[in-house]
Amino acid sequence: MLDVSLTPYDALLLYSFGGPNKPEDVVPFLRNVTAGKGIPDSRLEEVGEHYYGFGGKSPINEQNLALKAALEGELAKRGIDLPVVWGNRNWEPYTDDAVTELEAIGARRAVALVTSAYSSYSGCRQYREDLAVTLERRGQLDGSGSTGVQFDKVRSYFNHPGFAEANADAVTEGFEALTAAGGDAGVARLVFVTHSIPTTMEAASAVSHATYSAQHLDLAAVVADEVSRRLGRTVEWDLTYCSRSGPPSQPWLEPDVNDFLETLAADGVRDVVLSPIGFVSDHMEVAYDLDTEAVETAEKLGMNVVRAGTVGTREPFVRGLVDLLLERAAIARGEDVAEATVGTLPAFRSVCAPGCCLRRDGEPSGVPALCGVSLDS
């Protein structure tokens, strides 16, 4: 049993991707996301149509505020007084805004909780780099780390029991909803979906313990087994990808969920539950890539399809996040900790190894990153 203490931390940084709040934000937001890639505004306007179709507003910011409130509630329930500050890599409140707020409340050592459960460049290291670059711009970074607020991070939590339980609950509800909608849950196929990444990034992610895809496959097996137990039958499942971008010449992880639905339909599958296992909340990739594109594909193919929920603010997930914070604090205090996991993979590092999760396999980024064994670049 973990001690109910977050010492030595005096604040929590809830650290996310960010998204536009209105149509005028869309192109500036996409400029931030694609910085350094030389993509013209005309192309960003085309990509922005996904957002304009939803009023130019991403749901992610409100979902982060809901998660922040849920974390504050769970901390208070356990008698833990810890301020929670929210910051984003790509939109307001930016990382710099969050650091300013942390300083204003007198924080000296904060623990960062990234709203990405998996280990990869975009899911972990890019946040660590953004923290380091932000502190460097503020004149608060030296050769050994931060000279202002000190930062640690929570480990990648894809294989934490709370995340697995919340996903199993959501998938079970998805099968129930399929039955209610006239589908046959007794034979329905379970299709897990996550964000695709370039195969070079996939290869580089292996430095952590296992590749990005292997992390998903390991968790998917756990969730499918639990759902099978609850339904009283063996549920067949697959892992697919969405949200591919970049030039066609650049290989990304496959199969795309839409292509795979066509394959299933050709094999006679008519009932499908889609589970966005790669996403923490119902943000734009879920709202557009799954609820719009994938659902339209399934309907054209004559399939009965239900999209299961994300973990969002489900109680097992939020409870698990606070357990992870307590675990990280105990590690920071030098205590021996039994890190809770499910599946076959070990707990990933909370202090990253040098060269962990680079953008491309074998290529140093040249950008400093916090929360590692050293100021890794």
- Total E-strand runs: 10
User: Strand portion, in percent?
Assistant: 5-15%
- CATH architectural type of the largest domain: 3-Layer(aba) Sandwich
Mean pLDDT: 94
What characterizes the major β-sheet? 4 strands, parallel
Q: End-to-end distance, in Å?
A: 37 Å
Q: Please list the strands of the largest sheet in the order they lie side by side.
A: 2-1-3-6
Order of helices and strands: EHHHHEHEHEEEHEHHEHEHEH
Give a brief outline of the structure.
The protein is built from 12 helices and 10 strands.
Provide structural commentary.
This protein has twelve helices and ten strands. It has helices at residues 26-33, 41-47, 49-52, 60-77, 95-104, 121-137, 161-180, 199-204, 212-231, 257-266, 284-300, 315-332, and strands at 11-16, 84-88, 109-114, 141-142, 145-146, 150-153, 189-195, 237-242, 271-275, 304-307. By secondary structure, the protein is an alpha/beta fold. It is 41% helix and 12% strand. It has two domains: 11-157 and 314-332, Rossmann fold, CATH 3.40.50; 161-307, Rossmann fold, CATH 3.40.50. A four-stranded parallel β-sheet has the order 2-1-3-6, sandwiched between helices. The longest helix has 20 residues, at 161-180. The mean pLDDT is 94. Helix 11 links the parallel strand 9 (271-275) and strand 10. Helix 4 crosses helix 12, helix 7 crosses helix 9 (212-231) and helix 10 (257-266) runs parallel beside helix 11. 47% of the residues are buried.
Features:
377 residues; alpha/beta; Rossmann fold; 12 helices
Question: What is the topological layout?
Answer:
Elements: E1 11-16, H1 26-33, H2 41-47, H3 49-52, H4 60-77, E2 84-88, H5 95-104, E3 109-114, H6 121-137, E4 141-142, E5 145-146, E6 150-153, H7 161-180, E7 189-195, H8 199-204, H9 212-231, E8 237-242, H10 257-266, E9 271-275, H11 284-300, E10 304-307, H12 315-332
Parallel strand pairs: 1-2, 1-3, 3-6, 7-8, 7-9, 9-10
Antiparallel strand pairs: 4-5
